[in-house]
Structures are given as C-alpha cells and as structure tokens.
Amino acid sequence: FGRDMLMRILWAIRSSLFMGALSIALSCIVGGLLGAIAGYYGGKLDNVIMRIMDVFLAIPSMLLAIAIVAAFGTSLVNVLLAIGISYVPTFARILTVKGQEYIEAAKAVGASDFRIIFKYILPNSMAPIIVQVTLGVAGAILSIAGLSFLGLGIQPPTPEWGAMLSGARSYIRSSWHITVIPGL
Hints:
Largest sheet: none
C-alpha cells in the first residue's frame, strides 16, 4: 500500500501505550476498590469478593479477553474493557494491610470507614500497586497486540503492532524486517 513502515511502528507506540495504560488504570481502580473494601470489612464480604476474584484468576487472562471481545465485538472500548477486566483480580489481591496498627488506631479515634480506606489503606498500599501497574501495562500491551494479531483487536487501517505482524506474515520470506521489527 506504499505505507512507511517506520512511521507506522512509531505511530503504533502511541496507541499501544495509551490503550495499555488506560486498561490498566481501569483495572487498578476497580480492583483496588474491590480489594480495599474486601480487606477492610473482611468476613463474608471479603470471602465473596475474593472467591469471585479466584474464579477470574483461574481463567487465563488472554483467554478471558478473547472471550469478552468475541462476545461483544471488536471495538476499541471492548478491547479496553476486556483487558481491564482480565487484570482486575491481580489488583484486588494486593491490598492486604487490614491488620496493621495504624488502621486500629484510626478506628479507635473514630474515623469513618471511607476515611480509613482512602486515607490509610490505599496510600500505604501504593508501593505494590505501582509495581503491579508497571508490570500490568507491559502485559496489557502484549495482550492488545495478541488480540490484534488474532483479528480481535484494533482493525488493520490503524497501525498496531499485532495487526502489523498479522498482515506481514505472508511476506516473512522476502521482507523479514516487516515482521521482526514490530515483533521486537
């Protein structure tokens, strides 16, 4: 089609980073809130939320994303939701600071549940959340590329690494660089 491959690869960085960061932000917010609520209240609510997260963890994230995109269609929003939903359990499992002394002290002073969750639990869980977000963005970019390679992600006119790899499969013997560079 006479397209500049270098510019398509560079332009695909923009969409891949944006989609990866947005889907992980979604999963971090939803998973973080679910984990904070389950960790703070404990008991039956914790048991129910964590068993649902166990079910989601038992399903491979790529398989879950493929099922969601196949069920709802191949659009940008559906891909973002599919990747975001598949990463929610990893963020819900992070918040395990319930039994700390500062939470007991905040309860003794009479702080509300909302204040304890958002002022004490979430800020003290930021170190593992930041690490998980960093790893999650990389995994989300690979998942988005995998979905696009299968034809379930971003559609071909828009430059995306997985779609570029899928389109270049037939030229691998004559022009190896078309597949190797986006793959790297």
